[in-house]
């Protein structure tokens, strides 16, 4: 899953120049296919994918979706040039990105990341506890994903998001120095991951400021 690759060599010249990720403002229309807007965390049910079958016979109705869900705080903090995150719902403790060389630690404009993952078993909800703006890096399903497929969605903090199953993502990036998100997701927590640096010899450069238009 994401968060376990080292970022020690993020500035190494052995990699190609980071790929700049395009940014859009998150709303109902732009999120279509990626996920849904969440305005009420408690009332939002996690989308659970029925367990896949291996033959032509169908699942018995009401089965294959009973793995349950887990929830907990997703705590983010910028420490120097690193973005760190702790997902208490699943016990994850991650480094999710590193600032480029020369980037002001207090006025961050972009972050480098080398990973993404998706959950085939269900959706995942990110909801800003204190209405902090954030960036969600997402790409539509497909194991042959490319750098150009990724989009940085800017959220102004007035609502959260539930990403659908199989959507490539990283933990979100807060614009503030620290932020807490309420999260929930399927308890099975299956992860399929990609390491851009290993596969593409390249990091992604994710913008950290609101769109100008």
From TrEMBL:
One Gene Ontology term of the molecular function aspect: ureidoglycolate lyase activity
Catalytic reactions of this protein: (S)-ureidoglycolate = urea + glyoxylate
Keywords (A to Z) from UniProt: Lyase, Purine metabolism
GO BP annotations, alphabetical order: allantoin catabolic process; purine nucleobase metabolic process
Subunit structure, as described in the record: Homodimer.
UniProt protein name: Ureidoglycolate hydrolase
Organism, as annotated: Pinctada imbricata (Atlantic pearl-oyster)
Taxonomic lineage of the native organism: Eukaryota, Metazoa, Spiralia, Lophotrochozoa, Mollusca
């Amino acid at each position: 899953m994401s968060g376990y690759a080292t970022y020690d060599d993020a500035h190494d010249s052995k990699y190609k120049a980071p790929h700049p990720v395009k940014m859009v403002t998150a709303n109902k229309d732009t999120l279509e296919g990626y996920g849904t807007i969440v305005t009420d965390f408690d009332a939002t049910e996690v989308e659970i994918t029925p367990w896949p079958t291996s033959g032509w016979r169908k699942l018995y109705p009401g089965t294959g979706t009973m793995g349950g869900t887990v929830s907990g705080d997703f705590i983010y903090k910028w420490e120097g040039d690193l973005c760190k995150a702790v997902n208490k719902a699943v016990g994850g403790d991650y480094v999710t990105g590193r600032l480029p060389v020369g980037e002001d630690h207090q006025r961050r404009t972009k972050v480098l990341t080398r990973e993404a993952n998706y959950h085939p078993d269900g959706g995942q909800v990110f909801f800003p506890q204190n209405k902090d703006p954030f960036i969600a890096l997402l790409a539509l399903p497909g194991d042959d994903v490319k750098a150009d497929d990724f989009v940085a969605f800017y959220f102004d903090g007035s609502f959260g998001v539930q990403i659908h199953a199989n959507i490539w993502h990283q933990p979100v990036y807060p614009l503030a120095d620290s932020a807490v998100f309420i999260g929930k997701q399927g308890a099975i927590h299956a992860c399929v991951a990609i390491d851009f640096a290993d596969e593409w010899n390249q990091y992604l450069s994710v913008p950290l400021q609101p769109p100008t238009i």
